[in-house]
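Predict structure. Input: Ribonuclease J, 459 residues.
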Amino acid sequence: MVLMGNGGQVVPASSDFWFLPLGGTGEIGMNMNLYGHGGQWLMVDCGVSFDEPLNPDDAGEVKHEVVAPDPKFITDNLDLLAGLIITHAHEDHIGAVEDLWPRLKCPIYTTPYTAAVLRRKLSYTNFADKVRIIEVNDGETVTIGVFQATWIRLTHSLPDPYGILLETPAARVVHTGDWKIDRDPVIGAPIDASALQQLANIPIDAVVGDSTNALKPGWSVSEAECFEGLLAETKRCEGRVVVGCFSSNIARLVTLAKVAERAGRRMAVFGRSLERHVATARAFGLWPDDLELITHQHVGYLPPHEVMVVATGCQGEPRAALSRLADDSHPMLAMDKGDTVILSAMVIPGNEAPIDTMKKKFSARGIAVIQKDDTELPIHASGHPNQEELKQLYRWLTPALVIPTHGESQHLKRHAEIAREIGIKRTLTGVNGDLFRIAPIPSIRRKAISTGRIPIARS
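Output follows.
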């Protein structure tokens, strides 16, 4: 039965288990998901994207520096919101909390490392002491309203990534968040395969899963494989080396610090988010004590061949450190002809143009730019599952239904095809605002609610 809530919005009955994405389905980034059961909603992730228009279908529309999914549906029904789960500390999953929590006003559930990252972000607000953050440990089960949520350890490109098993009397669903199968992740433990295999005995009614790399065959590269590639490229460089990577990728930062040490360089980080993540990693004992960083103030005094800088802005974000270096407007460093920029990151779909603009600025000044497809050895490892990893997950879990999320239409479609190829009988694909009925009978109600984007003002 479907009940009616405020504003005529749909509300799940006790026999229902629903998935309702507000962001991140039909697009990459801005993840915001709702699960509905028994008259309540549970939010999973609350992320942002960068340098995006509010209407992605209008190529001429002005872009905003930070954009989040519009939470209007759930803020109009706050009495039904049981809580918010954050699966991991990437900006496209956690980045909107500091802006939207005053509208959500619900408890937040996450693991200790992600909680520490969130507290640092909230420390810049005037409501940090009002946010209730409940820390959850590996394998722990927590009751959140009418939902039972269990944290399942996975691997991704940062510490503490978790999938969530959501259980109700109506259905059992695994929400993967971002993940991959990495046998040697550099930081943290490998994926907990035994825990995933045991879930098949429950059984699992549906998996709502990451589709980012569904177009890529085979297995993804292990994080540990990046060391040799980054070392080889660094040793070829005679001038300064500036590396662009995602600031939350602590494993990559540790690898780069080891590369710098082996290559006779001193490493510094440029960008507030990088500094925050390194500080958090140190606090949790994830940064090796023997790997020293220099402060960014000292970089300009070193000979070029002794410098390695890791900078924010690998997606061409206009105010980030890499773009300021490309514009020759960074206060701490002026790059010269003969220096090299290494982009140790994937190009997120939609960011091709700003990255290309940034590359052209460097090239015009005689500064080489190296990307992952330019090298023989890997200089980047994706944090998302390729096709063989998706197949392995579904062999472990044997779900009755697969709902692809976190991807554009072509990623979602291929993800669904992969699931069917290995014997999953039912798949459902849709976009933000579609209501996915997992129980009692799997189906989709297209355009069940209106969704959109809102700009986020940052100082």
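The longest strand covers residues 17-23.
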